[in-house]
Fold:
Amino acid sequence: MDSLFRGTLWTILILFTLSHLTCNMLCPGSCLCNNMGAVKCVGDAITDIPHNLPVHTYLLQLNGTGMNTINERSLADQDLLLRFSLTYSHLHAIHPNAFNVAPQLKSVKLSSNDLSTISARIFSPLATLEQLHLDGNQLETIAPDMFEGLVSLLDLDLSRNKLTSPASDVFDGLTKLIFLNLGRNSINKLPPTIFHSLTNLLKLMIYNNELEELEAGIFDKLVNLVELKIHQNQITILPPQVFWSLKNLKTLTLSSNRLQAIPEKTFYNMPKLTKLTIYNNPLLSLPDQLMGHMPDMTDLYLYATNLNTVPGNVFANMSGLLRLNFHLNDKLRELPSDLFCCLPKLEKLSLTSNDLLYLHPQLFSGLTTLGILLLNDNKLKSLPDNIFQGLGGILTVDLKNNHLETLSGDTFLSNSVLKALHLGGNPWDCTCSIRGIAKWIRKHEHVVLDGQDVICHSPVYQLLRTIGSLQDEEFNFCDAKILKSSYLFTTQTPVVASTTTMPTIMPYHNAHHNAHQNAYHNAHHNAHDNIGDH
Ligand SMILES: *[C@@H]1O[C@H](CO)[C@@H](O)[C@H](O)[C@H]1NC(C)=O
Ligand SMILES: *[C@@H]1O[C@H](CO)[C@@H](O)[C@H](O)[C@H]1NC(C)=O
Structure:
């Protein structure tokens, strides 16, 4: 038993060493070969495909080489080669018959070279080719029969070239194709039937081109499409119902185009949509019926538009929305009261950097699962007392850089798990009305994360003090004032001025809060002026 075991061990060891040696022996200079048949070669010294490759080479990757042509015989005698790539190599010519000698290839990647023309039908011998990458070249046109015969092709990458207007039949016959990338070209026109053969396509990339319009019916046969990326074009109008065949679509990007309007019901019949981007379009308005039932939508990006309002039901069909990024719309003044009515799962709502002046008291009342609410950088002058009442799970509220002068002391009463609140950059008015929220802020110092920036802008005698430093006793005079006014109101008898106790001591007492001597001086001065007024 023991010797048999040892014998086996020795055999394995010898075989291993031998195969290792064999490989090393057969591996050409500038290359790395593994004993599975993968060969990787790098460097300018390589000017043609090395001919002393291990016999069982199935994968050959040449990168950053000095090889600028593929000859008629370059790929000869590599019967087991299935995957071939020649990248970053200034390749500018391929012999018209270069692939006749390697019809077994399943993958050809010629990315990041200098190809500006390719002979028609050059790939046609490759009837079993599944992957063809020609991205990062200088191709301006593609012959209509360039891909003829590639009946097995699944993945075609033509991105990062100089294509302008591909012919309408260039993809005909590629019925198995599942991935097509035309992104980062200069395409300004796509014929209406160009994609009509691609009934199995799952992903179509047309982003970063120069399209000004989409032809009606262009996507009609893409019934299996899951991802459609058309962002970064110059599209000004969409034909009605252009996406209606895309019943399986999950991702649609339309951001960074020139859309001023979107036709009614454009996003109907896409029940599987999970991501829709329409940001960075100069949208002026949205139609009353726009979004069909899309319960799986989790993220919506609707920012950097020219919208000044939106229909109240625009998000109503997105019942599964988790994050709504509705910001940087610098004309957006007001929001319909029922806008967020039907978003029972929303976790994050960003309304940052809009132009909001006012919020309806019921605006957020349905957002029971909201964790993050960003309202910073708007023009809010005040907030309804109970605006945050329904937000039992809210963790973060950002109100900085608005025009808020005061808030009710009960504003955050029902937000018991609030952890981060930003209130800085507002012109807080530290008169009697600030007393309630000042008290709340003192109690929740750890929650107000920018407490040092939450400072009084008025009255002058409070200038530059933080609200957190205002002591409740300083406001005792406010009670007297209330008494006074109710007394005045009920008896209509003049009251002796000296009975009101303005905080004459306060500016001295809190001088250390005022870094600015002039402010301190003015404050002192003004306090006395105020007394005089009474
Ligand atoms: C190929 O070479 C380029 C440029 O020299 C480099 O950026 C890239 O990472 C290389 N790719 C591989 C797969 O080695
Ligand atoms: C919501 O979707 C349904 C079905 O897709 C549609 O009939 C309804 O009009 C949509 N609602 C809105 C407000 O667009």
